[in-house]
Amino acid sequence: MYDPRLYLPKGTILKNRYTLVGVIGAGGFGITYQAVDQLLNCYVAVKEFFPREWVGRDSEVSCEMRLPAEPEQRRKVENCRENFRREGKILRAVRDVPYVVRLRDRFEENGTEYIVLNLIQGMSLQEYAKKRGGTLPAEEVLALFQYTLDTLTELHKRGILHRDISPGNLILSEDKVLCLIDFGSATSFDRTSELWNSQVFAHKGLAAPEYSDPMRQGPWTDIFALCATIVYLTVGEGIVEAKERQDFDYLPQLLLRSALTSRQQNALLKGLNPDISRRFSDVGQLHAELYGEAIEKKLPEEWRVFYHTKTDIGTRKVNQDNYMLDIVSCYKGEDCEQNGVMVCRPEEIHIAAVCDGVGGACHGELAAKTAIQALIHFVEAHPTSDVLPDRMLEELLDQINEKVLQLGEKIGRTATTLSMFLWRGDRYYAVNIGDSPIYLLRGRQLKRISTSHTKAELHIMTQQPVMREDWNTLMQYLGKEGAAGSQMAAFHYGRLQKGDTVLVCSDGITKKNEENRLKRCLAKRNQRVMPALFRAIGKSAQNDNCTAIVLKF
User: Fold this and answer.
1) Is 315:543 a contact under the CB 8 Å cutoff?
2) DSSP letter at 211?
3) CATH architecture of residue range(s) 303-552
4) How is domain 4-118 classified at the CATH fold level?
5) Residue 12, exposed/middle/buried by CB under 10 A (0-12, 13-18, 19+)?
6) I need a surface site. Which of 70, 273, 307, 549 has the fewest CB within 10 A?
7) Over residues 311-335, mean pLDDT
8) pLDDT for residue 533
9) How far, CA to CA in Å, does 371 sit from each of 5, 183, 365, 550?
10) Three-state SS letters, 16-55
11) What is the C-alpha to C-alpha distance for residues 86 and 65, in angstroms, rounded to an integer?
């Protein structure tokens, strides 16, 4: 147990930006805090270098970390500090690898060092399994680990070994996606690289026999730990030491307690072979044997998507609403309407977007084009991603924020409300700036899949941290020195189904029509949707400008 005086107090502000709100966890070499990023008003994790065996602190007096007096202990602290720095460098090197905890910042303060990470909302697989009685169904475990296999494949392509795969270092997000954390033991394949790390911390029952010899480690080392983690989650026991398996290997009998098929059991046995030469040499081989052809990921069939678009300028003539469809190949100004059909192949990415210039003379149209440009660049940078995790979507929002801010610095105050709906195959991503709404009608259920900035604004006014559903708040970030005025960027993502109807719009919908009326409009067939929708909008005495795109999948 840590002495409470070793922790930084709640309310401590680091780098004039990160306000600590509590402790997430503490180990032998560091303390991890939950904090609020005051610049973006979202939760983050702040990891502090603090090797408690040799350093000290009395936080009631000072936040400074006290170094030991003995030279030998100081050398140990510096060696550990170098490992901490290496972790930050490795995280920076793998920032664009899917399902890896994202590095946001690094800095020095209080006589020590900090790395700031994306705070994944969820729980570790260890906690999740414990909550479920100690084990998980084999089918569920394998479904979860498909993306972890993709992550390891990409890490190994970059020449990085994680070397600490365990149920405690895999976080199950609220979206039921596994994210890999804790790169303190990670190393480069290249022993001459600054990212080479000879130090490793093994978990009993999960560690490969070559953990004691860094020179014999490779992708097969991560494969062993991954297979051991799957066994642990499905049967509730870790793997005994390799030397204990020489006379009698009880592992086959242990696997019989799981619901794994014989082919899957054999794949795990090969991945857990104490002899490196008999183990899988790369993750792709494990994936092929563990999953087989029957449950490989397949893209959906070609879709024909009906679209209906309309812009109507209401009472505020100074504003102009516009719509963009299919990656801005269709850009229209005020008072226009269009219908058509798009043939969407599974490998293609399509975008439907609407924008509204806020406040009249504030270049909303340019701001919207800038944001969409950032989205297009992002999509081009990740052309093969099937599912974009939170980290990658946060990166997209950061790029949008930076683009709009740069525009504001060049041309003066600028603001926009913008809704963008991106889909690839059956996966959709809804991104909105400001209060522009996006709705999904599935069967008889209508759901808003964009986030209103009013909740984020309320949290700021009441000095509360912005919650996950509000995500990135731009009121302070883009409001500096009048450079820009967009209130918020947020995202939501999920799966599309045949029969879904999506409404992407700017103004004139939210608070103007009750849910039942909107549902009735969107349920109408094809070209009857728009007239019904705009008749409903027109009944409001406070009719505002409105651009709407309806997509029928």
Assistant:
1) yes
2) G
3) 4-Layer Sandwich (3.60)
4) Phosphorylase Kinase; domain 1 (3.30.200)
5) middle
6) 70
7) 55
8) 79
9) 46, 33, 10, 21
10) CCEEEEEEEEECCCEEEEEEEECCCCEEEEEEEECCCCCC
11) 20
Q: Residue 162 burial (CB < 10 Å; 0-12/13-18/19+)?
A: buried
C-alpha–C-alpha distance, residues 385 and 33, integer Å: 31
pLDDT confidence band for 426 (50 / 70 / 90): confident
Alpha-carbon torsion, ordered 180, 186, 189, 191, to 10 deg: 170
Query: pLDDT tens digit string along 346-368?
Result: 777 788 887 765 444 445 556 66
* CA 317/CA 543 separation, integer angstroms: 12
Q: How far is CA 68 from CA 54, 75, 111, 241, 353, in A?
A: 6, 10, 12, 37, 58
Give the tokens for residue 242. 């390799």
At 157-199, the pLDDT tens digits run 999 999 999 999 999 987 678 889 999 889 998 877 888 887 7
Question: Which residues are paired to 353 by β-bridges?
Answer: 324, 420
Q: Which amino acid is at 317?
A: K
Region 122-291: CATH code: 1.10.510.10
Intervals of CATH 1.10.510.10 along the chain: 122-291
The structure tokens listed for 317 are: 């003539």
For residue 125, is pLDDT > 90?
A: yes
Three-state DSSP string of 362-426: CCHHHHHHHHHHHHHHHHHHCCCCCCCCHHHHHHHHHHHHHHHHHHHHHHCCECEEEEEEEEECC
Start and end residues for every CATH 3.30.200.20 domain found in the chain: 4-118
b or e along 391-418 (b: 16 or more beta carbons within 10 Å of the residue's beta carbon)? bbbbbbbbbbbebbbebbeeeebbbbbb
What residue spans in the chain does CATH classification 3.60.40.10 cover? 303-552
Three-state secondary structure call for residue 503:
strand
Q: What percent of the chain has pLDDT over 90?
A: 30
Q: Where are the alpha helices (DSSP H) in 417-524?
A: 453-461, 515-522
Per-residue tokens: 148:
């972890």
Question: What separation in angstroms does the CA of 333 have from each of 14, 165, 205, 421, 549?
Answer: 46, 53, 64, 19, 14
The confidence band for 332, taking pLDDT boundaries of 50, 70 and 90, is low
The mean per-residue pLDDT over the stretch 8-31 comes to 92
Instruction: Report H helices in 165-246.
Output: 219-235
Q: Which pLDDT score is estimated for 327?
A: 43
**What average pLDDT does this structure show over 40-66?**
90
Pairing state between β 122-124 and 170-173: antiparallel
Tell me: the pLDDT tens digits for 456-501? 445 544 555 545 444 343 334 333 433 333 444 566 767 788 889 9
Burial of 146 (0-12, 13-18, 19+ CB in 10 A): middle
What is the bridge-based pairing of β-strands 18-26 and 13-14?
A: antiparallel
Name the token pair of 30. 């560091």
What six digits make up the tokens of 272?
Answer: 């857990």
Total number of residues shown for the chain: 553
Distance CA 413, CA 551 (A): 33
